[in-house]
Amino acid sequence: MPLRGSSLVSLQNSPSPHPLLPSNSFKNVLSPGTLAPNRKKLSVSCRRSDYFDQQRFASPTPRDSSFASQPPGGPVQSSRVFVGYSIYKGKAALTVEPKAPEFTPLDSGAFKLSKEGFILLQFAPAAAARQYDWNRKQVFSLSVPEIGTLLALGGKDSCEFFHDPFKGRSEEGKIRKVFKAEPLPDGSGHFFNLSVQNRLLNVDESIYIPITKAEFAILNSAFNFILPYLLGWHAFANAIKPEDSIRSNNMTARSGAELEWGR
């Protein structure tokens, strides 16, 4: 279960097991007439870590639910980062997690976005005081347009999304999911409700959880931040190189207006 709120991770350089002491830490006591021994000049060389260089590039791992640090066009790194935001209330709990987009490699060596990322909502009913039955959790995936609808939601506005995982197939209608966001009567926030009817598992579940204005503001801020990443635009931005723009400018001398109207 994701932890409440967000977590901060800090990286610090661990001290060297054999630190170098300054030259004045030792003093040679010489008797009169004693020649000082030859002193060797010590030098210390530091190798720059490539960790922080790697962190500048962030490309999602195809077909994976996490975001991994990856140079554009380079091999997938083994390090993965899982994040989420959780809200706990008396009758239910809600976790919100971003899921990375998927990319398809092309013959040219480039990558093309094949599937947009999404936000996964997980609702769990309460089993007891401060305990939640995650075995009965119900999930709902917010698409990019649905995220935009929530971002535009006013204090008195409501919205509703309907999902059928088997739409267009023979099993259509066997699983129905309806997500609703409605304003609270006192104006203090919104109600999130997920109703799931699963005929395959004989499940009929409806989970409500109140979302305060502060919690809704946190969700909106997180959604605004992650939205370009769900669209894959960060991978495009990270792949931009100065030499590419110079090469493009040399290939054509047409002005911006000609490029626009010449299409």
Automatic annotation (TrEMBL):
Compositionally biased tracts (Low complexity): 10-24
Compositional bias per record (Polar residues), positions renumbered to this chain: 56-69
Ranges for region Disordered: 1-24, 56-76
Source species, domain of life: Eukaryota
Pfam family, one: Whirly
Signal sequence, renumbered to the chain: none
One function term, GO molecular function aspect: single-stranded DNA binding
Keyword DNA-binding: yes
A Gene Ontology biological process term: regulation of DNA-templated transcription
InterPro entries (UniProt xref): ssDNA-bd_transcriptional_reg, Whirly
The entry's keywords: DNA-binding, Transit peptide
Similarity annotation: Belongs to the Whirly family.
Official protein name in the record: Single-stranded DNA-binding protein WHY1, chloroplastic isoform X2
Species this chain originates from: Elaeis guineensis var. tenera
